[in-house]
Design brief:
With 545 residues, the protein is mainly alpha-helical. 59% of the residues lie in helices and 3% in strands. Its main location: mitochondrion.
């Protein structure tokens, strides 16, 4: 088991060299260590907070020369221990990634061959350039920072794409090193997150060209290929016109959906799946949760439900067909939440939600240690809401059933049902449409009660409580249940301000209820009076005759 962070040396036998790479458990981390950064803490103070192209233009000739102890990797790469830091190197040690981006962007505009000079003129080393890309793309609030420094009318992603072109000029033609392959995959990941799929495709093309139009034996590259060429990107799936399924709620989903998203390579997935299942193939030893999920998403996008079911049967020994003979499987533990989400999403896209829920039940039964995280439950409710048909399910039993399963799963494991705003928003949609205030009341002791332990509630949390409370109070007022409404307000008002608001809301609807009943009573009395008058007139006329 690797520690969470450290330094490893990867021997590349073909080159008879060793490169030291800082890493963490979730992703290769090529940023400079904290010790090296602290040596230049004073440098940060001299760097302007607001970085613009104009500022860099004024200061581009200024440089700070510092001498530091060399990195281990620099020794191994044969770099001089007396190496002086250039301006960009100094900025890198200060972790001023946006400043470096602006500087490189400006220099590339002034000199078309600037990219080629980065390594030849020792402006940055290979490791430093990779550290810069890693640090930049992992910067917090990167989209906003890019917007602030990008030229007017230019998308922030354009600056990153320009950086990609500069990087190509720096590394030149020829095969990619493992470090360069990692850098390009980082750029692909950024463009996918930014919904710039065309740019991501272009970077992927570069990778494939470098490997003679073959997919490198690299998990991240394979995942990106499946996402960009085989449909394994569910957030970009267009709405299924046959089922009308949306894969995010309208309020939580961003504008990632595009009708142009297609699977360009429909033959690759089946062949690749065969390689993953072949013990003699090198891919069988490189399989991962993310890679398996991407394969399932691809099959779901292409409508290959039978292949998904076959994959589940062979790997985990689970089938909806009770007559199927279960063979021994290689899996000793159940799937992760990530894989279960991919199964759920893929089957939901093909209008197989009932089958998906049955499979989830079978997984939980056979593998009770399966960990279902918050994201799994969120996706479950998003899909159940997207598939809900008020005509076929007027009482919202699908959503209620999902809630019961979630509650039972937590209870059997002695866990608290943690609040999730997005999930509860999805649940509220069905409760409101079905006017099911009784189920809404249950949400307070089961989940929303956690909010009352907090001193300050966020605007979203207050808004959620108000939605549920108003649904309940409106129905209690309509039923004339005055006592239960007051008890609910007293027990479940997070603060005095909301208690006054809830009481006012209830009184308003109770007044409407009383006025409505009064009008109904008056109308009924008038109708009865008219009927009695008519009867009396009839009796008088009868006597006259």
């Amino acid at each position: 088991m690797l520690p969470k962070r450290g330094t490893i040396r990867l021997p590349f036998k073909k080159w008879n060299s060793t490169v030291a790479i800082n890493y963490n458990i979730s992703n290769a981390d090529l940023r400079l260590s904290a010790e090296q950064s602290s040596l230049n803490a004073s440098l940060k103070k001299s760097i302007k907070a607001n970085v613009t192209l104009q500022n860099v233009l004024k200061d581009r000739n200024k440089s700070k020369i510092l001498t530091l102890e060399p990195l281990v990797s620099e020794h191994k790469l044969g770099l001089s221990s007396e190496r002086h830091l250039t301006r960009l190197s100094a900025l890198l040690h200060a972790q001023e990634y946006i400043t470096i981006l602006v500087e490189i962007t400006l220099q590339s505009k002034l000199d078309e061959d600037y990219g080629q000079k980065i390594f030849t003129q020792n402006i940055l080393t290979h490791m430093e350039f990779s550290s810069f890309i890693q640090g930049l793309l992992n910067s917090s609030d990167l989209a906003n920072k890019l917007t602030q420094v990008a030229p007017p009318g230019t998308h922030g992603a354009e600056m990153i794409f320009n950086l990609y072109k500069i990087y190509l000029g720096a590394i030149g033609p020829g095969p990619l090193s493992p470090l360069q392959l990692h850098d390009l995959n980082q750029l692909i990941h950024f463009f996918i997150k930014s919904s710039q799929l065309r740019k991501a495709q272009m970077v992927l093309d570069k990778i494939l060209d470098s490997y003679q139009n073959q997919l490198p034996c690299d998990v991240t590259s394979a995942v990106h290929y499946l996402q960009l060429r085989c449909g394994a990107l569910p957030r970009s799936w267009p709405v299924n016109t046959e089922t009308g399924i949306k894969f995010r709620s309208p309020k939580s989903r961003k504008s990632h959906v595009s009708s142009n998203y297609k699977a360009f390579d429909k033959s690759f997935v089946q062949e690749f799946l065969h390689q993953l299942n072949n013990p003699a193939n090198h891919w069988s030893h490189r399989s991962s949760t993310t890679l398996e999920s991407a394969v399932i998403y691809s099959l779901g996008f292409m409508g290959q439900v039978s292949m998904i079911e076959d994959l589940i049967l062979k790997k985990w020994g689970i089938s909806l067909d009770t007559t199927t003979k279960i063979q021994s499987t290689k899996a000793t533990v159940g799937p992760t939440s990530e894989i279960l989400i991919s199964i759920l999403t893929s089957l939901a896209r093909n209008n197989q939600m009932a089958s998906a829920l049955q499979l989830i039940d079978l997984f939980i039964t056979k593998y009770p240690e399966v960990e279902l995280n918050k994201m799994f439950w969120r996706r479950l409710f998003q899909h159940s809401t997207g598939l809900w048909n008020p005509k076929k399910d007027p009482r919202g039993q699908l959503s209620s059933g999902c809630w019961e399963v979630m509650q039972q799963w937590h209870e059997t494991r002695g866990r608290q049902l943690h609040i999730d705003i997005i999930l509860l928003e999805e649940r509220y949609v069905v409760l409101r449409m079905t006017n099911n205030y009784k189920e809404a009341i249950k949400v307070f002791p089961q989940c929303l009660s956690q909010l009352y332990e907090k001193n300050d509630l966020t605007a979203k949390e207050i808004g959620l409580v108000q939605k549920y409370a108003k649904l309940i109070l409106k129905n209690l007022a309509a039923s004339g249940n005055y006592h239960n409404a007051l008890q609910f307000i007293k027990e479940w008002s997070p603060n005095n301000e909301l208690e006054i608001s809830f009481r006012s809301y209830f009184d308003e609807h109770r007044e409407r209820y009383l006025n409505r009943n009064k009008k109904k009573l008056e109308a009924s009395q008038q109708k009865q009076k008219a009927f009695d008058d008519e009867e009396e007139d009839g009796m008088l006329l009868g006597r006259l005759w």
